[in-house]
Amino acid sequence: MPPDTSPPTISGVAAAPNPQEIGGPVNVSAVVTDDRAVAGVEIALTDPLGAPLGPYAMAYHAGTGRYFFERSYAVRGPYAFTLQAWDAAGHRASASGSFAIVDTTPPTITGVLADPDPQTAFQVVNVSAAIADNEAVASARLRVWDPGGGLAVDAPLAVDPGTGRYFDARPYGVPGAYAFTIAAADLAGNVASASCAFRILPLPDTTPPVITAHGAVPDPGELGATVRLFARVTDDTGVAAVHVAVTDPAGGLLGNFTMALAGPDYVHDAAYAAVGTYGYCVWAEDGGGNGAQACGSFAIRDTTPPEITDARGAPDPQELGGVVNVSALVADAQGIASVSVSLLLPDGTPVGPLATAFDPASGRYWMARAYTGLGTHACTGRATDPSGNEGTAQGAFGVRDTTAPTVAAVASPDPA
């Protein structure tokens, strides 16, 4: 057999896929033949930083008839490679090529969290997320918008060495809803973002309302007429409710009433059915449950005299010696203490005052007696209430004599 003087031939050099995503495998292959036999094939590479990789032996794939070398690459950029093939006689051949490793995948942002949520004003909120990339995270940034829509934070995120999470921890002072976005970029400039929100609560309210004024109008009030209880209340966060408890002159609770806002004051209007001194206590409460109390008193009096109506004598006129019933209706808000009748007889003689009785069936006060004097009898009714107020009414009735005299039989003298 003649000596081997021909080197192998290398053809169909290929790298697939090209470009390849960082971290993915690249298969470099070629067809290598020799007139006798191929003794070996190897590949040597240079990475994007100029560092040599290899040489590595290339395997033969019987199905494709190609020599190949496959591996993944963690550095992004262009890779150069050279294939060397030799036969048993030591003759060599070479072929060169290249491929690129690229990064088109943005970082992943997961586990976005604001802790705690909600948080009290001026306390720290930790905004964090897990951020990863197939190459490396180049930067991570937090942007936070306050409840009014203004940009409150625009700052880079730090890495917690214990958890590996990216975070920003700071206090927020304005109560309300905050929106935030975390943006991350990798070395290739790919960008990802994730958004969420958290809420800031107002500081706990520990300041009670202030009752700046309170009282009753009018004071004293009239029996049966409306009296307005009022209270002027202020609070730094707002008044939630105002109530007033009212006690009667005997100390009994009349009720605990909700006061309504009327202008600058909280008010409760009511009429009262007994004379005396009433007590009240105003209780004001804010939304934080803080309360304030103020107490006072007011008087109810009766200055209105009883009212006497429909005063009459019956029958009118009456026959001489007959009974006349003098009566009237008497009313008073507090009640009737006494009712009397005074008479002025036709001859000018005063009679009375005379006590009256009350007839439940008719609701009238009355006094009945017989009269022996002819003419007009003037009468004055007087009624008093428990407060000493006196009401009067005037009237009159007549007494007449329409009965003819009667003549008795008279015996004549005996002439004998």
Q: Say what oligomer this is.
A: single chain
Largest sheet: 5 strands, mixed
How would you state the average pLDDT, rounded? 94
Secondary structure class reads mainly beta
Treating each run of at least 4 consecutive H or I residues as one helix, how many helices?
0
How much β-strand is present in the residues?
over 45%
- Ranges with pLDDT <50 over ≥5 residues? none
- State the end-to-end distance: 227 Å
- Side-by-side strand order of the widest sheet: 2-9-8-4-5
Please tally the β strands and state the result: 36
Indicate the overall shape.
rod-shaped
Indicate the percent of residues in helices: under 10%
- Taking Cα atoms only, what radius of gyration do you get, to the nearest Å? 58 Å
Overview of this structure, please?
The chain is mainly beta. It contains no helices and 36 strands. It has a five-stranded mixed sheet with strand order 2-9-8-4-5, with no helix packed on it. Strands 11-18-17-13-14 form a five-stranded mixed sheet, with no helix packed on it. Strands 20-27-26-22-23 form a five-stranded mixed sheet, with no helix packed on it.
